[in-house]
Amino acid sequence: MRFELEPFNRSVSDEDLLSDLVTAAETLKAAGKSLTFRNYREVGKYGPSTINDRFGSWNNALRKAGLALAEEKNVPVDVLFDNLRLVWIAKGKQPVYRDMNGPPSQYTGSTYNARFGGWRKALEEFVATVTEEQELLTTPEARQPPKQTGRRTNRDPSLSLRFLVLKRDCFRCTACGRSPATHAGLILEIDHVIAWSKGGETIAENLQSLCFDCNRGKSAT
Questions:
Q1: Which of 29-60 are b and which e, b meaning 16 or more Cβ less than 10 Å from the residue's Cβ?
Q2: CA–CA gap between residue 49 and residue 52 (Å, rounded)
Q3: CA 169 to the chain's CA centroid
Q4: Residue of 159, 165, 135, 156 whose CA lies nearest to 86
Q5: Short-list 147, 159, 71, 55, CA closest to 109
Q6: In CATH, what class is 151-220?
Q7: DSSP 8-state symbol, 138
Q8: Fewest C-beta atoms under 10 Å: which of 51, 99, 157, 158?
Q9: Residue 95, preceding bond cis, omega within 30 degrees?
Q10: For the segment 170-211, what is each residue's pLDDT rounded down to a tens digit?
Q11: Residue 45's closest CA among 76, 12, 77, 78?
Q12: How many CB atoms lie within 10 A of CB 67?
């Protein structure tokens, strides 16, 4: 057996990534397919997540490469909802249709229209699903005291739990009161009130919304 390192894609230049997008688009077009996040996995030299991280979003990378945005069909509902959560969290309030056409969204507003029959219907189904998830996260069983023989929860909160805490805190830092909706570029993080290292569980009652600056300031004290 030969032990070899796989290519370190983080060192790849922007030009190489964009060039490969163009090549992949041509290859897929010849096969009667469009260049989408999922289809790129079949023919691309790099991972779509590498491109996403480098340019802020998949759609932003397509724009920089001079490629048309493809309306990806049959995207699983849970994937679309996770994407909508990310946009909602980043904006700090309910996103509008045009918010889905730029970073951090991976899917355009037209994708939601096609999947749900309209943007408003997509929002309604998303909110109904989130409400159901939040009810499950706040059941008495989820609030019971930690057992003495091990942890009940993972250290990192799920996307659903993050959204629940941010929504409860009105998408504002509980320390300074700032919000992404009023302060461009502000990043909100989810912090344990009782530190995980000191036995704190990852449940809504033990989590709070803090901006990047306040959370780092807390860590330094």
A1: eeeeeebbbebbeebbbbebebbbebbebbbb
A2: 5
A3: 19
A4: 159
A5: 71
A6: mainly alpha
A7: T
A8: 158
A9: no
A10: 888 999 999 887 887 777 889 999 988 888 888 888 999 998
A11: 12
A12: 17
